[in-house]
């Protein structure tokens, strides 16, 4: 894709560490080119220790109009912003930031992005308990999404007891009228036996990590009608989803979530509709 960069070009980007694996630049730049806009979307690799300096520094760069956030910055960025919109407050995580005048305003597009492929399925979500692996910023969005779907119980499983206790406190202080439970990893086998939808919200299994968050034996504990959803989209499929597919389970990767949350973010930045199908085709071609 050819691109004309000038002194007037405005900048969007994705901030995380690492971001070398990110496909966000592919889909966003495809949409921007199709719309004929003088913008470019770039990776912004920012280590945790440099996040404060990065947020302040980017504000001084007038051409930077907004950015996405990925692991590990979705929660830590919140106190560094000038305003956080209600959806992001309720989730407790920000994945999209927009410059409005001289202020950074944060929102969350992960919730609707996560739900998008599930809305197309013929499921009675009130009979589908959710089990979420991990307790980071992505897991917070998934909890909110499962609440919106109507899942009767939402179980979050993690290895760090202190982190799990903090996660529970943060979520229950923001969201009401739902059944959320947090569990140590040792409880996972029992939970898997009654799971309706299992979601991997950990980074385990990314392109740089050949592992899987649960074993083949643990996957075998899931009911035959269970849905397995991995937020990771590279490699495609992940080992986690290969195991699920081998068992004959419905397997969903993070590609549709990536596309839909990205389209919502781009609309938030530009205040106009964006060509989501062009974003999808650009990603499929890349993969």
From TrEMBL:
It is an enzyme of class 1 (oxidoreductase). Pfam families: SDH_C, Shikimate_dh_N. Residues 14-97 form the Shikimate dehydrogenase substrate binding N-terminal domain. NADP(+) binds at residues 134-138, 231, 254. Signal peptide: none annotated. Its EC number is 1.1.1.25. Residues 254-284 form the SDH C-terminal domain. The keyword Acyltransferase does not apply. It comes from the Bacteria. One of its GO terms (molecular function) is shikimate 3-dehydrogenase (NADP+) activity. Homodimer. Belongs to the shikimate dehydrogenase family. Involved in the biosynthesis of the chorismate, which leads to the biosynthesis of aromatic amino acids. Catalyzes the reversible NADPH linked reduction of 3-dehydroshikimate (DHSA) to yield shikimate (SA). This is Shikimate dehydrogenase (NADP(+)). It comes from Pseudanabaena mucicola FACHB-723. The gene is aroE.
